[in-house]
Amino acid sequence: MLFHVRMDVHIPLDLDADVRADVVARERAYSQELQRSGKWPHIWRIVGEYSNVSIFDVASNDELHDLLSGLPLFPYMDIAVTPLATHPSDIRAG
Amino acid sequence: MLFHVRMDVHIPLDLDADVRADVVARERAYSQELQRSGKWPHIWRIVGEYSNVSIFDVASNDELHDLLSGLPLFPYMDIAVTPLATHPSDIRAG
Amino acid sequence: MLFHVRMDVHIPLDLDADVRADVVARERAYSQELQRSGKWPHIWRIVGEYSNVSIFDVASNDELHDLLSGLPLFPYMDIAVTPLATHPSDIRAG
Amino acid sequence: MLFHVRMDVHIPLDLDADVRADVVARERAYSQELQRSGKWPHIWRIVGEYSNVSIFDVASNDELHDLLSGLPLFPYMDIAVTPLATHPSDIRAG
Amino acid sequence: MLFHVRMDVHIPLDLDADVRADVVARERAYSQELQRSGKWPHIWRIVGEYSNVSIFDVASNDELHDLLSGLPLFPYMDIAVTPLATHPSDIRAG
Amino acid sequence: MLFHVRMDVHIPLDLDADVRADVVARERAYSQELQRSGKWPHIWRIVGEYSNVSIFDVASNDELHDLLSGLPLFPYMDIAVTPLATHPSDIRAG
Amino acid sequence: MLFHVRMDVHIPLDLDADVRADVVARERAYSQELQRSGKWPHIWRIVGEYSNVSIFDVASNDELHDLLSGLPLFPYMDIAVTPLATHPSDIRAG
Amino acid sequence: MLFHVRMDVHIPLDLDADVRADVVARERAYSQELQRSGKWPHIWRIVGEYSNVSIFDVASNDELHDLLSGLPLFPYMDIAVTPLATHPSDIRAG
Amino acid sequence: MLFHVRMDVHIPLDLDADVRADVVARERAYSQELQRSGKWPHIWRIVGEYSNVSIFDVASNDELHDLLSGLPLFPYMDIAVTPLATHPSDIRAG
Amino acid sequence: MLFHVRMDVHIPLDLDADVRADVVARERAYSQELQRSGKWPHIWRIVGEYSNVSIFDVASNDELHDLLSGLPLFPYMDIAVTPLATHPSDIRAG
User: Fold this and answer.
1) For the whole prediction, is pTM greater than 0.95?
2) Which of A4, A83, E22, G16 is 20 to 30 A from B90, comparing alpha carbons?
3) How far apart are CA F21 and CA J66, in angstroms?
């Protein structure tokens, strides 16, 4: 079941540089593990912004919330979730 | 080069039913041809709306505008285009 | 799996009165059948507006889109879907 | 009498960790007591956000304001209240 | 129990003049009857707009929705309802 | 001459508690004096928000700005003023 | 007493040309009479828009609403009124 | 003196095809004459939209309004004008 | 050449009182000098807000930006500029 | 391939003056080097704002994101990117 997720990152400018580097590194590892598991099949950078558009593939709303609220950058992000359905013109459908 | 495209369809309620069926059928054929060509790799329905989120893969801005303005439903849609770049955490990058 | 759905109805003022009465009657029957099935557990009127807030309980995004796009009033409504998860303070949770 | 309430939590990132843990624990206890009393019949997490959608069942606007302004997290939240009425298609309505 | 209600009137420019005059006259009579009953204690025109700000005094959300949806101009208005509580500095309180 | 005034209070979370208590107490006294004078005939709390909707009755725009900018909480508030006129359906009008 | 008024004109594209010419001519005469009377001391066109920004000088909110609602183009305009006060740095004040 | 102008075109779907073709042809001729004169040095299509971003180089606000309100498509467009100044980092400045 | 300028002042609440008093005094002197020169012919306070609406009369966009960016309060303000043209109904126009 | 880029600068008021001067100087050098290379053909100041509108000419979305995210002021800016295509009325086109 697919969801469209936009994440806008707002790390405070005065966050300690080591804390920042650490959380960014953990975010990267966390994201890549989910990508490898198949639960986060797409992630793209929005040009000119510290933001991404992602596609998640999960079994339930609860699983998606667990994954997103577990993001190391979660406290520093605005996240907007849009549920997706199969498009009737999708050549890969049915 | 990837672009995120959201399309919201607003066909007038009083459009002739045959005209409507024709334009929707042509839209479907047009979309599927572009999907097969690889230029329109993803299309998803937004749940509860007559809208889609799509990913286009084109060589230039001009090519993207030509493809979008050629959509049979173009006169009936609001379209928002967001350019995408490779995300540094994407496991398929680099 | 629960979803929060807001529906705002905009039936054209010049719609034929019989057509209007018919679509409203079919909407009511459609809604009540889904309520009885357990897929539409809550529906509330927003005070002062021709709008409702509803909770749907479905197995997937695709099922929800099928239910919503099948609403007799679907062509006359703006619909906004918000996926819900279990709240950690919910006394009925786990 | 039912009200739809959306709460968006914005705890400052630099709030002392003990103060934060304490206020979150008190919020949980306060919420669960109201849930048990029947005045707060529903609470759901919005997927991907530190927000909830709730339904309150109270005797008056004044009672609702007293309950909401007494929330331990009240100083850290944006709250939007929407009054609800019985929907004419609700199968549980008279 | 008090509610703040804003009504913005959008009568179609091409509505038949007699129909318009009739609905406006019925709106006026309906409003004045509710004012006399005490349920609609205040109504003010917003300067420069075909809009009003009103205060309603009703026993429940359901009663308010019945009153508002019964307005002869209801099909031509956007209505926004805000529940009000006693202000702690109000000299007429307690 | 009546004006509709909405005030949204945003006292900084880290304001010294004594300073806060003092300014809130002075606001209350200031408001009640104006209420008694007849210049601030109505004040209501918006349910769930640290906000009020008020009606002012003043002789001029300048007088209203003097009253509002003199509010002890003025530096902590967003204020929106809407001029009101007599509504032609008001039973108390002429 | 001064008010800032913005008027955005939206005459329907299919309005009869003679009706349109007549209402525009009457609007011009009405405006110029108020300008000569001193009640409408300033009117400016917003570059690129069928809109104006005006300053009105009236004795009361009721007088302003009477003047604005009497505009021949009133049914075709969106109007936004902002009350103005003397600025403490105005060299013509005091 | 430079101005940034965004134009969004909204030609009614039911406009007569010949009328439409004529106004679009006249718009093109009008635009190209101004481009050749140096008053409209840049015009770009916004990808996916029936909109353009343009730069105008004129002697005054009045001249700009005359040029824009004379556009054959003016009755069908929303136009937003932003005045531009020399940027201190512009290598062509000074 | 006239421009409509709205300025919204947001001086931080914790700015040193002497610094604040100094910048406000310099703003006043700067404004009054420009008013006397004829370049800032109008300044009005918006009722209930720490904001003004002003009219500037300058020779070019560059001159206007120099004047505005030189305001002592410039770092603390949001400024919105709207270019104005002569209105065809203005009785003072040619 | 052209892109329209708007940059709004929000340097914190309490940033150390030397740090600020340094980042602004580096921004200027960085911008001018890109202007000389032909990748940043236009930059204009928006009158009254600490903002610019720019045109970039790059080979790909990835190149544009690299250029923008490398701006010394990137952490202090909101950036909005709009892809541009050739306008059919552009006299310099084909």
Assistant:
1) yes
2) A83
3) 51
Q: Which CATH superfamily is domain A2-83 in?
A: Dimeric alpha+beta barrel (3.30.70.1060)
| Helices assigned H by DSSP within J1-94 | 17-37, 61-69
**Region class of E23: left (phi > 0), else alpha (psi between -120 and 50), else beta:** alpha
Q: How many CA atoms lie within 13 A of A73 on its CB side?
A: 22
Chain B residues whose CB is inside 8 A of the A53 CB are 4, 82, 84
Q: Are A27 and A94 in contact (CB under 8 A)?
A: no
The minimal CB distance from J62 to the residues B3, B81, B85 is found for: B85
pLDDT at H94: 61
Distance from C-alpha of E10 to C-alpha of E28, rounded to nearest angstrom: 16
Contact F45 E86 (CB under 8 A): yes
Q: Do chains B and F touch (3 or more CB pairs under 8 A)?
A: no
Q: State which residue of chain A sits closest to C66, comparing Cα positions.
A: A85
Once rounded to an integer, what is the mean pLDDT over residues C75-85? 98
Q: Which of residues 52-91 of C touch E (CB under 8 A)?
A: none
Average pLDDT over chain I, rounded to an integer: 97
Instruction: Please report how many Cα atoms fall inside a 13 Å half-sphere around the Cα of residue I80, on the Cβ side.
Output: 7
Cα torsion through C26, C30, C31, C37, rounded to 10 = 160
Tens of pLDDT, residue by residue over D65-87, are 999 999 999 999 999 999 999 99
Asked whether the beta carbons of I81 and I64 are under 8 A apart, the reply is yes
* Phi-psi domain of I39 (left: phi exceeds 0; alpha: psi -120 through 50; beta: other): alpha
Q: What is the pLDDT of residues H28-87, one digit of tens each?
A: 999 999 999 999 999 999 999 999 999 999 999 999 999 999 999 999 999 999 999 999
H-J Cβ pairs (cutoff 8 Å, strict): 77
d(CA C75, CA H32): 42
Half-sphere exposure of C22 (CA within 13 A, CB side): 5
Reading the block at residue H66, the tokens are 């005359």
Q: Return the pLDDT at H93.
A: 81
Using a 10 angstrom Cβ sphere, with 0-12 exposed, 13-18 middle and 19 or more buried, the burial of residue G94 is exposed
Domain ranges of chain J: 2-83
**Is C31 in contact with D89 (Cβ distance < 8 A)?**
yes
